[in-house]
Amino acid sequence: MAKLSCNVTNCIHNGGGLCGARVIHIIGKEADTSRGTECDTFEDTDITAAIRGMTNINIGGQLRQAFENEKVVVSPDITCEAKKCIYNADRRCTAEYVQIYGPASLSNSYTRCESFKDR
Q: Using an 8 Å Cβ cutoff, are 118 and 85 in contact?
């Protein structure tokens, strides 16, 4: 499981810098840099997005995070379309640490996987 941090503060899945999504999907098949990737899981914090995002919530991980004394890393499954990234192994991310970047994003097109590394 990858350690994950996210600074997209207006994403419904962001809980204190950790992602509460069950699955994160990174898109950008032809990306050569992190700027060519996007977090397709991004959902804004409005009510419509909240309802839409309810099917992708890691409730167990978020409860552990809320009630355990030590900080729990909520590590969702990460699928990746960026075929030029060294961490992409058959559409699964193998990076030990994943950082999603995009503070105050307006859409997924302003989010990106900062852990991307070209082959």
A: yes
